[in-house]
Design a protein that fits this description.
alpha/beta; binds ligand AR6; 5 helices; 7 strands
Length: about 180
């Protein structure tokens, strides 16, 4: 576990499975259908059970075109230990000049805003977009961390933010980027 301090917020970066997290909320790297998929999304729905999909289906009634990239919605967490799930949609990597960095930033910022508005104090993120959506982790890591820092400096409301990474190589990328950005 690697720890950094951004203002009053603790940032903890670690290796793990996000479905085991006991934070107030975990973030799902979903797709705009909100109907599940593979990767983190598949793992969350499989372990959390059908109540999560049932609430996603209700949400889709208000979003007939699906959840736009960069935005976030919240559901129950079914059988998981976390209290809530925030579902967000990262950008599909398409070379980097199609707004991908801004959209990736939005996923982190809007998820944190959703947590703040619901008085949730601890949150766990996976590495959004760097699996099936193909975003290079070397580029995603500093973008994710910048979005988190922007949120902490403008909103200052979350106690602890976890980045829960599935691969050693991803852990190294995020930790190196955090050392460059936060210097502690
Ligand atoms: N805990 C933490 N990280 C995980 C876990 C886990 N249980 N499982 C996978 N990862 P991805 P994306 C890592 O593909 O790129 C789905 O089908 C994974 O190794 O889950 O945003 C959705 O339905 C990778 O490093 O998300 C969408 O269609 C990272 O999480 C699409 O994939 C993200 O990989 C979203 O693609």
């Amino acid at each position: 576990m690697y720890e950094f301090k951004i203002k009053n917020t603790r940032l903890k970066i670690k290796l793990g499975d996000i479905t085991d997290e006991e934070t107030d909320v975990i973030v799902n790297a979903a797709n705009s259908s909100l109907m599940g998929g593979r990767g983190v999304d598949g793992a969350i729905h499989k372990k959390g059970g059908p109540s999560i999909l049932a609430e996603c289906i209700e949400i889709r009634k208000t979003l007939p075109m699906g959840l736009p990239t960069g935005e976030a919605v919240m559901t129950n967490s079914g059988l998981l230990k976390a209290k809530r799930i925030i579902h967000t949609v990262g950008p599909v990597w398409n070379g980097g000049s199609h707004g991908e960095p801004e959209l990736l930033k939005n996923t982190y910022f809007n998820s944190l805003l959703m947590a703040k508005r619901n008085s949730l104090k601890t949150i766990s993120f996976p590495s959004i977009s760097t699996g099936a959506f193909g975003y290079p982790v070397k580029l995603a890591a500093p973008t994710a961390l910048n979005a988190i820092a922007d949120f902490v400096y403008s909103e200052d409301s979350i106690d602890t933010i976890f980045l829960v990474l599935f691969h050693e190589s991803d852990l190294s990328e995020y930790v190196n980027a955090a050392k460059n950005l936060f210097k502690n």
